[in-house]
Amino acid sequence: AGVFTYDPGFTSTASCDSTITYIDGEAGILTHRGYPIGQLAKESHYLEVCYLLLYGELPSAAQLEEFETLVTRHTMIHEQMHNFFRGFRRDAHPMATMVGVVGAMSAFYHDSTDINDQHQREVASIRLIAKMPTIAAMAYKYSIGQPFVYPRNDLDYASNFLRMCFSVPAEEYEVNPILARAMDRIFTLHADHEQNASTSTVRLASSSGANPFACIAAGIACLWGPAHGGANQACLEMLREIGTPDRIPEFIARAKDKNDPFRLMGFGHRVYKNFDPRAKVMKESADEVLDLLGIENNPTLQVAKELERVALEDPYFAEKKLYPNVDFYSGIILDAMGFPTSMFTPIFALARTVGWVSQWKEQLADPQLKIGRPRQLYLGAAQRDYVDIENR
Ligand code: CMC
User: Fold this and answer.
1) Which domain of life, per UniProt (predicted)?
2) What confidence category does residue 294 fall into, taking pLDDT thresholds of 50, 70 and 90?
3) Which of 12, 38, 184, 337 is the most exposed place for a label (fewest CB within 10 A)?
C-alpha cells in the first residue's frame, strides 16, 4: 500500500496543472490566461472572455466574429426537448430542471458525445455555451407558467438571455443596453474560477471518460449548494430577512455563535483571504444599475452596505479573513433586473459553463490524464465475521 496524504476538503491538494485561471488569494488577484478580471469585466465582454478561456488568446476581430456567429447559430434547442421540460413539476426549482435537462442533452445530441473526436468535442463545447441561456430561460418561463421564448440570434448573448426571460407574446421586452451590459458583466465575473468544487466535479466526472453533457450536469448539481453557487440566492434572502440596518447586530452575533449554524452568506472564501476582486466590480455595477433604474434607497442595498461595513470592522471577521465574495452584490443587481431569487444560481451556472467546458477540454488534452480516484482514512470496524440474523 502506498503512502498518501489526508486532506479533507482538498485544502492543500493540487489535482491538476492548468494554464487557464490564476488566483492569488492573499493578494486578491484573479487572472484568466494572464488578464486581470477587473480589466476583462470592464473592457472586454463575455463572449470574448469565452474565446480567451477556450482557446488561450484574445481573438482577432475576424476570429471573434466567427466565434460569435457560431455561438448564436447554436442557441436553439431540439424541439423535442420542450416535451422533456414539460415533464417537470411547475414549481420545480430551475436548478433542478437544469441538472436534468443538461444531463439529457447527451440523449438529444448524441452526435457530439464522442470525446475522442476532436471535432465533436468542439461541437459539444459550442452547443453547451450557446444553449445554456436558452435552457436557463426556459426553466424560468416554465416555472412561472409562461410560454417559452425562442432565442433571437441577432441579439448579443446577454440581451438575448434577458429577452428570453422577460418577453411575453403580448409584449416584446425592450432590452436596455445598460442592463444588458450589467448582465454581461455578471456572466464575465462568473466565467471561471480554477479548481472550485463544481469544476473539480466536472473534471472528476470527465476523468472516467463520461460524455460532456453528463459532466456539465454534474457541475451544475455541485454548484447548486449554498456554500458554492447557491450562495447568491441565499445571500439575497438573508439580506431581505435582515430587512433593516438596526437588525444587523443580531445577525452578526448569530454568525459568530459557534452553536448556531448560521453563516453570513456572500462572505468568506476558500481561497481569497484578503478580498475577492470580483466583488469590487460587482459592487460598482450594483450602484450603476440601481442608479439607472432610478431605485433610490433600495433597502436591500442599504442593508448590504451596512452589513459589509459592520462585518469588516468586527474582529471575528478580520481574524478569520472573511470578506464579501462575488455573490454578495450580484443578487442585488439580479433582483433589480426583475429576476426571482430562484434564478440567481441558474444564471451563475450558465455563466460558469464556459469555465467548466474549458477545463474539461484542457483535461482531455492532457496526455497524463488518469481517472480521479481519491483515497480515504478508514475509521470503521476492523475485519470481523458475518453473524446470522438469529444470532445478532
Ligand atoms: N460567516 C460566518 N463565519 C464563517 C463564514 C461566514 N460566511 N465563513 C467562514 N466562517 C468561519 C467558519 O465558521 C470557520 O470558523 P472556525 O475556524 O472557528 O471553525 C472559519 O471561518 C473558516 O471557515 P471554513 O468553513 O473552514 O472555510 P472554508 O474555506 O471551508 O469555506 C466558504 C469557505 C465559502 C464555504 C465559507 O466561507 C462559507 O460558507 N461562506 C458562506 C457561503 C458563501 O458565501 N459561499 C460563496 C463562495 S464564493 C462563490 C462560489 O465559490 O460559489
Assistant:
1) Bacteria
2) confident
3) 12
Nearest CA to ligand 1 atom 4: 263
Helix (H) or strand (E) holding 31: strand 29-32
CA distances from 156 to 147, 213, 248 (A): 22, 24, 40
Count other Cβ atoms within 10 Å, centred on residue 181. 17
ipTM for the predicted complex: 0.96
What helix, strand, coil percent values describe the chain, rounded to 5?
60, 5, 40
Selection from 181, 22, 62, 98 nearest residue 353 by Cα: 98
The position carrying cell 474582529 is 315
- pLDDT for 189 beyond 80: yes
Task: Check if 231 has its Cβ closer than 6 Å to any atom of ligand 1.
Answer: yes
- 76-100: per-residue pLDDT in tens? 999 999 999 999 999 999 999 999 9
How far apart are the C-alpha atoms of 273 and 195, rounded to whole Å? 17
Nearest to 328 by CA among 288, 294, 301: 301
Q: Which domains are seen in the chain, by residue range?
A: 16-219+344-364 (1.10.580.10), 231-337 (1.10.230.10)
User: For atom 45 of ligand 1, which residue has the closest CA?
Assistant: 227
